[in-house]
Specification:
With 142 residues, this protein is α/β, with parallel strands linked by helices. Helix 1 packs parallel to helix 2.
Length: 142
């Protein structure tokens, strides 16, 4: 696929996070049109963060797209993705990996952890006491 037009689609922050994650792995996509989409602040920032890794992307159309924070009702329906900021990812989150947006948040966090923990052997996920080695992070896409 060389062009994807999702103009005026109801993708929200979760969809934008999933698209941002996909852009990093797709060198074939040349144009992405998100005109009129409500992407939210988190979605817009995630797309911005993905642009340096989107090697093939020549056009990102955002005419009429909105980046306002989601209202309370949208935050509940969009899960953790609604408030996620890829530039300031700290904090606790409950992620439902069945939701594309939450899955994109998890993949982004793992990618950032992999990049920042190259010199460390492991880290711990809070609340679950799971130790994940740096080798385990290699199996996470991204």
């Amino acid at each position: 696929m060389r062009e994807l037009d999702l103009g005026r689609a109801s993708i929200g922050a979760p969809g934008a996070l999933a698209l941002a994650d996909a852009l990093r792995d797709n060198a074939a996509l040349r144009a992405l049109r998100l005109d009129g989409c409500r992407l939210g602040r988190a979605g817009g920032r995630a797309l911005l963060a993905a642009l340096p890794d989107a090697a093939g992307l020549a056009l990102l159309a955002l005419e009429g797209a909105t980046f306002a924070p989601p209202d309370a009702e949208a935050r509940v329906s969009e899960g953790a993705a609604a408030g996620f900021d890829a530039f300031a990812p700290g904090g606790a989150r409950d992620l439902d990996l069945a939701r594309p947006g939450d899955r994109a948040v998890a993949e982004t966090l793992c990618r950032q952890a992999r990049a920042s923990l190259k010199s460390q052997r492991y880290f711990t996920l809070m609340k679950r006491d799971l130790s994940i080695t740096v080798e385990d992070l290699r199996y996470v896409r991204g």
